[in-house]
Structures are given as structure tokens and as C-alpha cells.
Write a structure and sequence with these properties.
single chain; 317 residues; alpha/beta; Rossmann fold; Alpha-Beta Plaits; five-stranded parallel sheet; five-stranded mixed sheet; 12 strands; binds magnesium ion
Amino acid sequence: MQNSFPIIVIDDDPFFSEVVRQVLLHQGYEVIVSNDAAEALDIIQTTQSRMILCDWMMPDLSGLEVIQLLRSCDKQYRYFILMTAKNSSDEVVAGLSAGADDYVTKPINKIELLARIQCGMRIISQQQEIEEQNVTLKSLAEKDELTGAYNRRYFNQALSKEIRRARRYQQPLSLILADIDHFKNINDQWGHQAGDDILTEYCSIQQGELRFDVDWVARYGGEEFVIVLPNTSHLKALQVAEKLRQKVELNSFVTTNVVLNVTSSYGIATLDETSSCDLSDEFSSLLKRADERLYQSKARGRNQCTGVIHALKAMSA
Ligand SMILES: [Mg+2]
């Protein structure tokens, strides 16, 4: 669905801007007028407007400066129509070179102005479609279709970035490898649909326990997930894993054909345990340690978490 937005009219002449406002209102457009360019910049940001009619000559900021300012910091595509008495060829070129999309001369011809706005709206509409398609394509390329977790390809790229960031800011980075116990039996006994339902719910329990926009989950294999916890100590990561384990154990998983209880096992590793300087070494070492500890959790009877604290205890026992 495409966004609707008001048209922003910026002109230091209140009489002229009111005339334009009336013309646009009459056509059913929502309009916000500002007679002050600096104020208009705020309005554009807060309303997310994409259609801006801007006067060239204004006392504090000129129309060209407004356009250049927004173009330099904006990720969103906006359509700018300059309104001015300047109409020489050089001036038109200067206006378009500064980033304006179109140009109308004062006194305004109402029909021409409306036609130019419609033309701009068509371009904005196509741009919005492309943006929406890009979001969908990005999601398809990065996410696991069943669970909505990131896929392994995303994990491989993003973990390297997390490791680099952790090193740069000298922060710990923890990783939890999580696996649903005896998952094959669930598929065999209750069918793949029940298995899929459990995977989806399991993933959503994980997501619910993590910090929004900081921690993230990827589906690593069939019933195996990897949880990445930036700026998280090993002890804290163990606590997160234990909380997840308990949540899963207490949860009744409602599938299309049966309600089931399942358990899960966890292996936890943290970046600050090693002083290796090679990025690929750190990447594989982190995963390897988490994988070994997940294996220990399984070997010790499943439904448990293993981290370095457990590993040290086991060695000294
Ligand atoms: Mg003016």
C-alpha cells in the first residue's frame, strides 16, 4: 500500500501561498503551507511528504538551499517543484541542477501547476512501488520463509559485521546455538505440518525474549537456530539461554493436529574468550565452541544450557 502525504507549499509570501493552497485544496489535496523555510524543513520530515512546492527567493534559506539540504541528508525520494519569477534559460538550468525536479514560473498558471503536480505524483507512485518491491526482495533474500528468522546466508554476512563491531568497540559478543530436542521424532510421529508449527512457535518464543533491534535470530539448519547477542557477556548470554530453555519447557505448542510439549538444548560461546586476530578464525571458533557446547548439552541428557562456566566445571570435576 502506498503512503498518502500532504503537499507542502513553502513561500515567504502569505498571499501567494494562500492562492496556491486554495487551488490544491479545490483538487482534493491535503496541503500544509509554511512561510518560513527552516520551519518547512521540520514539517517535511515529520509529515514524510514527498511533494514539495518551493519558492526560490526567500529571506533566510533560498529554495535551492532547501532542496540541496534535503537532497544531501534524505534517503527518501521527494519531488520538488520550484516556484519563481526567474525564467531565463540559465536560471532554469541552475534550478534543475540544484536538484529540483520541475519548475513553474510566477504568476502561476493554475492548470499548468496541477498538471505538473500530477506528473510528479505519477513518478512518486512508481518510486514507492519500487521501494516496496525492494523491501519484499530484501526480506526474501535475508529471511527464512517459514519462521521469519534470518536465513543462514544473512547469518554468515551479518556475524562477520558483528564481530568487527565488537572488536572496534571492545565489547563482548555472545552467540547461542539452540536446538529442539528429538525434533525428528515429532516429524515422524505427528507429521511435517506439526513440525513446522513447532518451529514457527519456537522461533517466536525466542524473538519475544530478545532485545528489539539489537539481538537477532537466524535459522541455522532444520531445527537449529543461532541467536546473536551483541555487547552481551558470557554470563548474561547463559541467563538468556536458560530463560529461553525454561520458557520452551513450560510452553504448550499448539499445532494443527496436536498440542505438544517440547524441550530444547543450548550451547553458548562468547567472543571475548579468545584473542585470535583473524576474523575468519574468530567466526569459526565462535561457532565451533557453541556447537561443541550444544553437543555437551545433548550428551548430558538434553533440555539444558552449556557455556564456558559449565565446561570449566566439567574439566575440573
Ligand atoms: Mg519569495
